[in-house]
Every structure is written in C-alpha cells, then in structure tokens.
Design a protein that fits this description.
Length: 349
Amino acid sequence: MIAREEIANVLKGYNKKEIRIATICSHTALQIFHGARQEGIKTIGICLKDHKKIYDAFPYGRPDEYILVDSYSELPEDELIKKNAIAIPHGSFVEYYGKKNIESTRLPMFGNRMSLTWEGSRDKLYEWMKDSGLKVPKVFTPETIDRPCIVKTSGAKGGHGYMIVSSPEEFKKKIKTTDYHIQEYISGVRVYPHFFFSPLSKTGYTMKRGSLEMMSIDRRIESTIHESYRSTIAGIELKPSFTVMGNEGLVIRESLIKKVLEAGEGVIESSYRLFGGLTGPFCVEMICTDELEFYTFEISARIVAGTNLYPTGSPYTSYSYNEPTSTGRRIAIEIKNAAKADRLGEVIY
Ligand code: AMP
C-alpha cells in the first residue's frame, strides 16, 4: 500500500485553484460530474471510446473533459496527476482497476483507500462489521448448515450466482466451487442507507470526531427474487437469484432513524480503530426483520449506485441542506471545504 505521505506529497504539487474531479464514466459518474458542476469544480471522465456518446447525451451530467481509452486496464495516472485530479473511486472504478492498482497508484483518491481493502476481503469485512457493534448474519461451514442459508460464491458479481441451501446435502448438490461464503438467510426488508462522514464538518449527527450525514436510502431490485410472486402466481417454480438490476427509493419509519444513524456511527468509530478512519460516502447494507432488528450483511466503503436516485437530493438531504444536494455534490463540497481549510490530506488518500 502506497504511504499516505506519498499521496500528501503529490497533493502538495497540486494547484489548489485548479483541482478537478475525475472518475470512470460508469456507475455513479453522471451524479458525480453533475454535483461537481453545481459546485464549480471541473471534471474529467475516463471513458471507453464508444461510451462518450452516452455521456454527451446528458449535458449537465457529462464530464467537462474526457480521457478516451480502449479499455480500463491501465489507470492514466500521470495524465490525471498533471491535471490536478482527485479520483472518486465508485463501484466500477474499484472493479476495473482492482485492488492492486488502487493500493499502489500515486493518484490522490477521495476517501481512505484502506477502507476499500477492508470492504474487499470477507474476513476483514466481518471483523469490521462485528467491531462496529452491528448484528451480523451467522456464518456457516458446509457441514454445519442447519437452516436456510445464502451461499455467496467468489467472483459472483452483483449477487449473480448466489444460491439458497438448507442442508449439507443440498450444499453438496448445488455448489461446485471451492471459494464461497455461507451466511444465514435473513428474512425481512432490505435497507441500504447512504451515509457521508466528514471529519471537517460540525453540523449533522455529531460524533467523537466530525459528523455523519444520512444522505438517502434505497433498496436494490434483484432479478429474479424481486418480483418472484409473479412467477408463483403464473405457476412457475422459481429458482431465486439475486442479480442486481436497479434501485428504488425508500424512507424508513422515523422512529427507526436512530438505529440506522447508530449503525453508521459504529462503522465510522470502528474504521478509526481498525485502519485510520473511513471518510466520505459509504453504505451499510442491512435487512430489517419483523422484530425491527437490523442485520448488516455488507459495508460498501464508497459511493453506491443507489444514490443515483437522488441527483436533486433526497427526503433526508432536504432536512440538512437548503439546496438540492446529492452525494455527488456532497463530495465536491467536501473537497472544496478541505482545500479552503488546507486539510485535503484528511479526506484524500
Ligand atoms: P451482497 O452481494 O452481499 O450485497 O448481496 C446481494 C444480495 O443478496 C442482497 O442485496 C440481498 O438481496 C441478498 N442477501 C445477501 N446476504 C443476505 C442474507 N444474509 N440474507 C438474505 N439475503 C441476503
């Protein structure tokens, strides 16, 4: 992992008045560029040649400038550094450039890149979730399965290929890979709250240090489980699958906000104990049972695609800001505030 001081050195060479926000044209890029534009920060889109047309179709969401590439195999690090760029690592950015590139690049990235390493390893993720004081689904080995479990095979993307099994025999019959994670299946409603943690801000939900903002909430729409009742009514026997195909908005009972904010707070406090702190956007992926207990099955330590529902703000940001504020815009605000206060090193690594 590249040292924090090296990134601080790169940042020292930046012209603070010419800072740009850069990311791959995918995932949450339209929202990120749109938010930066609202804050007057110029943007750079790293874009596949044949995808430029898609981004040009959205004049307020397109980047100000493109770096056109044939593939995402190499990060145009030097060119971006020359342009005073701060990269926003969204889901596709992390996926395409991979752990190795992200850990070693000299390109300054918004947030703490250590958090991406922690979210990317099942063992570390569980350690983090438990240290955060969150309720987590029980983990099983194939031999100990004694209830409905979800088997997450490694390499499965966006929930694709996950299976439900209820016994060691069923596991043996259905699972042919050797790399898997078996988790108790939690019945309830999935809730994906999107947070933003700022070590600089003094407004919002105050904590030991900085403050936490609840930006919005979504629920993922997954095929085929999402509308499985239709298949059932049609008399079709369904093999449930969990392939994410979109997102829909959600607000929760106001009396549940306390539990959700406390979950976010736990994640941040633990991140400081474990790896020097998560800053910026993140999501705690939970399932709320009929006892109104929240089980967390994952943490996303970066902006999540569900925030795309709210380019002009959400019901929750309406109570925090006087203006329509997306997570993309919140990122731009943080970069501006940090640059002004000469504290970029605290929100960029
Ligand atoms: P993940 O890849 O962990 O984000 O999970 C993808 C999808 O699988 C989630 O959005 C849920 O619909 C489902 N899922 C994951 N873990 C569990 C669990 N422990 N219990 C029930 N559903 C789960």
